[in-house]
Amino acid sequence: MLEVVELTKHFKNNKAVNGVNLYLEKGETVGLLGPNGAGKSTTISMISSLVKPSSGDIRLRNESIIKTPEKMRKILGVVPQEIALYMELSARENLELFGKIYKIPSKELKNRIDEVLEIIGLKDRQKELVKTYSGGMQRRLNIGVALLHEPELIIMDEPTVGIDPQSRNYILETVKRLNTEKNMTVLYTSHYMEEVEFLCDRIYIMDHGKVIASGEKEEIKSILSAEQTIAIKVEMLKGEFVESLKILPNIRNISIKEPIVSIIVPKKINILKDLFKVAEESNTNIISVNIETPSLEDVFLHLTGRQLRN
């Protein structure tokens, strides 16, 4: 349905996007991951026809849309990272306004608004001002605006940032339902790896303007098939313990989510003896040690050297 070919974007001396290739099949949910500054937002802006590429091509059903962006705009819905709503209007008034911008006929618009309000779960709160909504409700309405014109493709740029777990789960289930029931194609970016695990069929990982890995989830995880993750839970995390781990041989990466320190090491290496020695020397009490198969987040850390939220 959508193909991006050798896409680049230069801003003066900065190559924000450098030869990106990706594709989306009809009805897929595809994850686009990368640390801050990786080039995701610029790539999305070019696909959305908001930013013109320096070179490369964007093809919709095998037809270039660089010179005819209106063809993309007709079938595309975008959920931006920032809330793009009028706070002094109600939910219904916002949808009416954006519906007119989309040039949806009046008779059809009323039905579309009713349907969208049902999808995003705001039918009972439609007459309340958006400024009185919680962050989660505003995020849901943000999605509703993007759904008004029944897009075939929707780009969702971190749609769950800064909201409560209940609203986040509602949004994830809504995305899943749109994909399965309406066969909507979704390009999804997030700083939460578990969202990508839940939603996405395939994944692209970007860093420094390039795609550095792509494939189905299990294919991505197989990048570390010869590695294992060791999760070390400690009573109190000490800097000396972490610094001593860093100088041990064979440790690929270290990530910290207190009170757990996770390290990636080759499966053939028995590092437990060294771990307990380092703990003893740093006066660190180890509560438990779990050996796990590397996760998607482990692979991301291995490839980029950074955690997803960094």
TrEMBL record:
<dbReference type="InterPro" id="IPR003593">
    <property type="entry name" value="AAA+_ATPase"/>
</dbReference>
<keyword id="KW-0547">Nucleotide-binding</keyword>
<feature type="domain" description="ABC transporter">
    <location>
        <begin position="2"/>
        <end position="233"/>
    </location>
</feature>
<dbReference type="InterPro" id="IPR003439">
    <property type="entry name" value="ABC_transporter-like_ATP-bd"/>
</dbReference>
<protein>
    <submittedName>
        <fullName>ABC transporter ATP-binding protein</fullName>
    </submittedName>
</protein>
<dbReference type="InterPro" id="IPR027417">
    <property type="entry name" value="P-loop_NTPase"/>
</dbReference>
<dbReference type="GO" id="GO:0005524">
    <property type="term" value="F:ATP binding"/>
</dbReference>
<dbReference type="InterPro" id="IPR017871">
    <property type="entry name" value="ABC_transporter-like_CS"/>
</dbReference>
<keyword id="KW-0067">ATP-binding</keyword>
<dbReference type="Pfam" id="PF00005">
    <property type="entry name" value="ABC_tran"/>
</dbReference>
